Structures are given as structure tokens and as C-alpha cells.
Amino acid sequence: MHEEPGIPNYGKAGRGIRLEPGMTLAIEPMVIAGKPEILELDDGWTIITEDGTKAAHYENTILITEKEPEILTN
Fold it and tell me: Fewest Cβ atoms nearer than 10 Å: which of 14, 23, 62, 63?
């Protein structure tokens, strides 16, 4: 579903891959009503909360430009 390079949404500032104009990336926050621990199901795709509380997961697609990042999703 996602293209290379993979850009994790965690880490330390100044480390990892340098974002260059023309790249697009997805910022995918997950808002969880309970504890932050999650589980991945056997299908390799589905994520659930470990404590069974409700959660919402959404995606914003960002284009890196020469000047400022451009948000492509509404």
C-alpha cells in the first residue's frame, strides 16, 4: 500500500532519512481511548488495542515541496 522509502512515525529529531522535494508521506496518528498498547492480528494488517478500548486511525498525506510541505488530504 505504501511506497518506499518507509518513513517511521517515531524516532529522534535529526535522525533517519532526509525528506526531499517530490516525496510524499503519510502521517497516520492513532487516537486510543485507553492504554497505548496495540496488537497486530494474524492477517498482518489489522491493529487493535490490547485492552479492547475504542480507537480511531486516520491518514494525512503530505507532499514535500521546495518551500513548505503541502497537505494533500482534507
Answer: 14
